[in-house]
């Protein structure tokens, strides 16, 4: 995140799109992401049946 003051917003969104038990996450504040408009970066691991 580029602004930890938005942390509560992230928690609210997480509860909207996921349910307990919540997936593990790492939240850190960084000065900037790849573009000035980006405020959050998301990493994910997905499993697909082949």
Describe this protein's structure.
The chain is mainly α. The chain has one domain (1-50). The chain is built from 1 helix and no strands. It has one helix spanning 7-17. The longest helix has 11 residues, at 7-17. The protein is globular.
Helical residue percent band? 10-25%
Elements, N to C (H/E): H
Measured distance between first and last alpha carbons: 34 Å
Rg is 13 Å
Subunit arrangement of the protein: single chain
Give the total of beta strands.
Answer: 0
Count of separate DSSP helical elements: 1
Question: Whole-number average pLDDT?
Answer: 88
What is shown here, in short?
This protein is mostly helical and 50 residues long. The chain has one domain (1-50). The chain has one helix at 7-17.
Topology summary:
Layout: H1 7-17
Question: What are the defining features of this structure?
Answer:
50 residues; mainly alpha; 1 helix
């Amino acid at each position: 995140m580029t602004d930890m003051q938005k942390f509560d917003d992230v928690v609210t969104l997480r509860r909207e799109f996921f349910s307990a038990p919540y997936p593990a996450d790492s939240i850190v504040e960084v000065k900037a992401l790849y573009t000035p408009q980006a405020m959050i970066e998301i990493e994910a691991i997905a499993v697909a049946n082949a």
